[in-house]
Amino acid sequence: MAVGTQLGLLLWKNFTYRRRQRVQLAIELLWPLFLFFILISVRRSHPPFQQHECHFPNKALPSAGTLPWLQGIVCNVNNPCFRHPTAGEAPGLVGNFGGSILSRLLAEARQVLNRTEGQRLLRGFARLLPALRQLGGSAAQRRALPLRDYLRENETFSRFLRTNTSLPPALAEELLGARLSPRIV
């Protein structure tokens, strides 16, 4: 059977079926028209408006490094839209994060820590770290330490116990030797 004959028979069969089902034919014809009229009414009630071209600030990918990636996340958290091209859209420019707040903060922290006061501060933290590790260990590692381990030699409290109170020196030494057990409650 030729293709033309098959197509003719198929169209005749479809026409005969549609002629017998008049309600279904009406629905099949009117339903797309109904949807089209809804689209027209929506378009007339909300006319189109001109939106300017939107330029977003560039965001580094994790492969660019941790700091630029975090800067891209933190500095562009609200994802602003600008009318004019941003600095990161220039061809060949990969990282323009040098002037960001986070970069300036880290540069200033480096400058402060490179000074003598910063070095002294770092040494103070280095002396404090073993004591914090001892205090912050697990319950099995945490042991009761004598009070004098928490104080520096001849600090105000120990000097006060030895000189200003009417306690005998043996009792002051016993108080300084009392063991304190730090517990997180």
From TrEMBL:
<protein>
    <submittedName>
        <fullName>ABCA1 protein</fullName>
    </submittedName>
</protein>
<keyword id="KW-0812">Transmembrane</keyword>
<feature type="transmembrane region" description="Helical">
    <location>
        <begin position="23"/>
        <end position="42"/>
    </location>
</feature>
<keyword id="KW-0472">Membrane</keyword>
<keyword id="KW-1133">Transmembrane helix</keyword>
